[in-house]
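Sequence in, structure out.
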Amino acid sequence: MKKPVILITGASQGIGAAIAKVFAKELQGCRLALVARSVKNLRAVAKRCAQLGAGAAEVFPADVTREDAVEAMAAAVKKRFGGVDVLINNAGFFRPGSFRETSVKDFDESVAGNLRSVFLVSRAFAPGMARRGRGDIFN
């Protein structure tokens, strides 16, 4: 039986990188699709995941707030792995500051990074999960 494909957004640092490393260590042989904007950081996380036991740790650079970027990333992931078994929508955006000082532009970036990205990435992979009758999405 093939090990599951786990796609993690925001995988280049912080919680996303930690999630990837835990999967690599605890689910030996799993196949990781690591998504974020920073190619350099993604490569470092992928290398560490391979050392920890991931069967594959592939890098898929993308800005998950952009529809065209998510579509291109999803096509690349599907070409490499077929379907995704577990989707972890971890990418997020935070700009510190008070409510009164937050500009509309900053607010829009926050909504895109924390909500639009979840919609776009889930929309790209949930139909395949539904067709196969299995899959999990974590936000």
